[in-house]
Specification:
CATH architecture: Up-down Bundle
Subcellular location: Membrane
Main location: membrane
Distance between the termini: 38 Å
Membrane topology: Multi-pass membrane protein
Family: Belongs to the clarin family.
GO biological process, one term: equilibrioception
Number of domains: 1
Helix content: 55-70%
Strand order of the largest sheet: 4-3-2-1-5
CATH topology: Butyryl-CoA Dehydrogenase, subunit A, domain 3
Shape: elongated
CATH class: Mainly Alpha
Order of helices and strands: HEHEEEHHHHEHH
């Protein structure tokens, strides 16, 4: 492939990586991953509430990987609250949360590193060096970390009932039960960025570079010939 076409492909990949980097940093820093509603069971049972009366006992919250906010209601008016995993919920959150924190930092580093490589190759002549194909596949690591962050966070929410634990944090009198949960903007931003990294891998392959773990046919043929000689 001509060098000019390679530059165009690298610039396209750089633009996608730049958009992805902005989306990832914004998504990880906002509490817009999950929106949940929860019912104050204790208050509803005390007054035997039903139908529209349950609205006075319904609270809601939204949270992300690091912090969140919400409103508790137990028949006596709204009580807004804010929380952060560190240091508020260190003893309450499951181990998966700590692992997802680790992969989220790797995701940010991988996205920014991949962006720098794409831009450097798009406006320079680095793609002529042998080290380039290996460095260009750094975004693949970032994409894998993004996938792991989504899986770990979803398991925390669904398996470990994270929303219910947060709703009952420091609530000795009232007990809350989660009614509904849905993934919101930031979660889907990470999901889209995962596919962007996959698309960047296809663009690199389109530019003529082989994956680091793929061996060329010429090398395999040479190895076979050498083995036959001995």
């Amino acid at each position: 492939m001509p060098n000019q076409q390679k530059k165009v492909i690298f610039c396209m990949a750089g633009v996608l990586s730049f958009t992805c980097a902005l989306g990832v940093v914004t998504a990880l820093g906002t509490p817009l991953w999950i929106k949940a509603t929860f019912l104050c069971k204790t208050g509803a049972l005390l007054v035997n509430a039903s139908g529209q009366e349950l609205d006075k006992f319904m609270g809601e919250m939204q949270y992300g990987l690091f912090h969140g906010e919400g409103v508790r209601q137990c028949g006596l008016g709204a009580r807004p609250f804010r929380f952060s995993y560190f240091p508020d919920l260190m003893k309450w959150i499951p181990t998966n949360c700590y692992v997802s924190f680790f992969f989220s930092y790797i995701l940010i580093v991988g996205v920014v590193t991949g962006l720098s490589f794409f831009l450097f190759n798009g406006f320079g002549l680095v793609y002529k060096r042998n080290i380039c194909p290996n460095t260009l596949f750094v975004p693949s690591i970032a994409g894998s970390c993004g996938c792991l962050v989504m899986i770990l966070f979803a398991s925390e929410v669904k398996i470990h009932h994270l929303s219910e634990k947060i709703a009952n944090y420091k609530e000795g009198t009232y007990a809350y039960k989660t009614q509904s949960e849905k993934y919101t903007t930031s979660f889907w931003v990470i999901f889209i960025c995962f596919f962007v990294h996959f698309l960047n891998g296809l663009l690199i392959r389109l530019a003529g570079f082989r994956f680091p773990f793929a061996k060329s046919k010429d090398t395999e043929t040479t190895n076979v010939a050498v083995d036959l000689m001995y």
